[in-house]
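*Target chain*
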Amino acid sequence: MGEAAGEARTSLDAILGGRLRLRQPIGGHRVGADAVLLAAAAGAPARRIVDVGAGVGAVGLALVQRWREAHGDLVEIDPELAALARENAALNGLAARARVVAVDALEAPRRREAGLADGEADLVVTNPPFFDALKVRASPDSGRARAHVAPARRGAASPLEAWIVASLALLAPGGRFVMIHRPDALAAILAAIGRRLGGLALLPVHPRAEQNAHRLLVAGVKGSKAPLRIAPPLVLHEASGAFTALAEAIHRGEAAIDWPK
């Protein structure tokens, strides 16, 4: 695929108030609010970051850009998206601190062969596919299907369990895990985490104050003994449909999501 053909199939967009520029496919899955919320919920600065299922690199690059001491591994199974993530790292002047690893993160031997060692990350962030291939019909668009629907994995109760277990294996003791998912997956999330994390915090995200949460942010620390807590909810929109002040600041890259102690 030549440069002109490749650019014709992608768009160059900006998020976080123009702070981060991203080339991404015109069709298929596009960077949106979930990536912005996950990056905003990452917590205190970390030096070694792994973004599992990085796509074109939005979350991992946002964090490496925010924290000047940070280095990130952006792990993506799709070679075309991995190539775009690599291009985006260079586009934003982050190539020296952001490594793109084109590998299936859920296959331990392959990720180790790719130089992704277990037990070394200070922070793992992830936005797993929301759906199970055995329960939904996948999109005919291969990129969209891969982003939204996870295939079954041998030895795991669910694709989500396999994803979480692999992500947590990358964490160092005391490392932090942050994920965004659907609220109705909470039981599966907690079962997959088990005793691998402590200090769990759950933060529901509501489209409007009167509506049910449509996203759930989950954070925890490897080795912590602190109890689970439920953080105050984040409401994205006023009744008028406009962003709340906090949501607007988050989407402009001017505010982070607070995790109360």
The radius of gyration is 17 Å. Confidence is low (pLDDT under 50) at residues 1-5. The longest strand covers residues 171-181. DSSP finds nine helices and 13 strands in the chain.
